[in-house]
Write a structure and sequence with these properties.
alpha/beta; Rossmann fold; Alpha-Beta Plaits; 2 domains; six-stranded mixed beta sheet; four-stranded antiparallel beta sheet; 12 helices; 14 strands; 40% helix; globular; binds adenosine-5'-triphosphate; binds magnesium ion
Length: 337
C-alpha cells in the first residue's frame, strides 16, 4: 500500500473511530467502500469508492442493473464479506473490526434463498431464532409476532421448499427480523415474485420502516426505487448519484413527452428526424421523448403529425420517472468512458 493511501486510510479510520457514533441517527455509513475480488482482471473493482449514509428509520434503495455491485455492497455492509478498503459502519459498529456487535444490529436477507428447504416454516423460524440468540418465551413471542406480521400463520407446518416464491421471501424476511435488528439489509427481496406478492412485501417493508428500522434494499426495479427515502444509483461498481427520488427526477436536464400515433412508422420517422428531441425510446405502444422545451415540442409534433395525416392517440407532457433518471445517468457515464 502506498504511503499516501495508508495515510488516507488511517485518517478515515480515525475519523470513524473518533466519531463512534459519529451521528447517533446515522445507522448506516459507507465511506469509500470498495471491493476488488482476488484475481479480478485488470484490477477492476466490483465496488468502487462507495460513500453514502442512511439516517435511522429511513429506507435507502440501491438501484442498479445485473452486475452493478449491489450484492457485493450489501455483503460488505452485512459483515459477511471482507472489504478491500475501509470502511462501513452499521448500527454504530465497524463491519470489519466489530463484526460480532455489528451483526447483532443487522438483519440480512441475501439475494438467494437462504432458508432450509427441508425444514418447515416453524422449524426455520426456530432455527434462526436460536442462532440469533432469541431464546425462551421471547422466542415464541417473536415467532408469533413475525408469523402474524408476514401473514404466514396458516403455513407453519409447510416445508420451506413447498412455499410459493412470495411466501419464501416473506419467511426469509421474518427470519431476518426475529432478533429485532436496528438495520435491515435486503438484497432484491422481490425479484422473481408475482406482482401481488411484490406489493404485499412492500406493504410489510413500509411497516418495518415505520417501526423505526433502517433499511438498505437493493433492487433492479425503478418503481421500487421510487418508494425509498433516498436512492443510490449503482452502475459498474460506481455510485453515479444519490438523492431523494423527487430530487433526482427534478435534476434531469430535460422534460418528458409521450406520444402514440398511427401509422407507427410515420410517428417514428417524425420523432427520429426532429432536432428538438434529443433522446427517445419505445415503451409498449408509445414513444417516450426527452425534450428541453415541452411546450414547443408538443406544438411542433402536433403540427408535423397532422401534416403527415397521422392519427394522434396520445400526446402529452408527463412526469419524469426514476427510469428516466437511470437512463440519463448511464448514458452520461458511457459518454465519459
Ligand atoms: N466472488 C466473486 N469473485 C469474482 N467476481 C465476483 C464475485 N462476486 C461478484 N463478482 C463480480 O462483481 C461484480 C458485481 O457483482 P454483484 O453480484 O455484486 O452484482 P449485482 O449488482 O448484485 O448483480 P445482480 O443484479 O445480478 O445480482 C460482477 O462483475 C460480478 O461478476
Ligand atoms: Mg445481486
Amino acid at each position: 500500500m502506498s504511503l499516501l493511501k495508508k495515510f488516507q486510510q488511517t485518517s478515515m479510520d480515525s475519523i470513524l473511530r473518533r466519531s463512534k457514533p459519529r451521528n447517533a441517527s446515522l445507522q448506516v455509513e459507507a465511506l469509500e467502500l470498495s471491493k476488488k475480488f482476488a484475481g479480478s482482471k485488470n484490477g477492476i473493482y466490483a465496488v468502487n469508492d462507495l460513500s453514502f449514509s442512511v439516517p435511522q428509520g429511513q429506507m435507502f434503495g440501491l438501484l442498479g442493473p445485473d452486475g452493478a455491485g449491489k450484492t457485493t455492497t450489501l455483503r460488505m455492509l452485512a459483515s459477511v464479506m471482507q472489504a478491500t478498503s475501509v470502511v462501513a459502519r452499521v448500527g454504530g459498529f465497524d463491519t470489519q473490526r466489530e463484526k460480532r456487535q455489528a451483526r447483532q444490529s443487522i438483519g440480512y436477507m441475501p439475494q438467494n434463498f437462504s432458508l432450509y428447504p427441508d425444514l418447515s416454516v416453524m422449524e426455520n423460524l426456530i432455527f434462526f431464532a436460536d442462532i440469533n440468540g432469541v431464546h425462551g418465551s421471547r422466542r415464541n413471542e417473536r415467532i408469533q409476532e413475525m408469523l402474524t406480521f408476514t401473514r404466514l400463520k396458516d403455513f407453519t407446518k409447510r416445508r420451506a421448499a413447498n412455499l410459493s416464491g412470495g411466501m419464501k421471501k416473506k419467511l426469509a424476511l421474518a427470519c431476518a427480523l426475529l432478533h429485532e435488528p436496528e438495520v435491515l439489509l435486503l438484497d432484491e427481496p422481490s425479484t422473481g415474485v408475482d406482482p401481488v406478492s411484490r406489493r404485499e412485501l412492500w406493504v410489510i417493508l413500509s411497516q418495518v420502516v415505520q417501526n423505526g428500522v433502517t433499511v438498505v434494499v437493493s433492487t433492479p426495479y425503478m418503481d421500487e426505487a421510487e418508494r425509498c427515502n433516498q436512492v443510490g444509483i449503482l452502475y459498474g461498481g460506481k455510485l453515479l448519484t444519490t438523492g431523494t427520488p423527487g430530487d433526482l427526477q427534478n435534476s434531469l436536464p430535460y422534460e418528458i413527452i409521450e406520444v402514440k400515433a398511427k401509422p407507427r412508422k410515420v410517428m417514428r420517422q417524425i420523432v427520429s428526424d426532429a432536432a428538438y428531441i434529443f433522446q427517445w425510446r419505445t415503451i409498449g405502444d408509445r414513444l417516450r421523448l426527452s425534450v428541453k422545451d415541452p411546450k414547443r415540442a408538443l406544438e411542433e409534433l402536433q403540427r408535423e403529425l397532422n401534416a403527415a395525416d397521422a392519427e394522434i392517440k396520445l400526446l402529452r407532457h408527463t412526469k419524469r420517472t426514476m427510469e428516466d433518471v437511470f437512463i440519463h445517468l448511464v448514458e452520461e457515464r458511457r459518454a465519459q468512458v
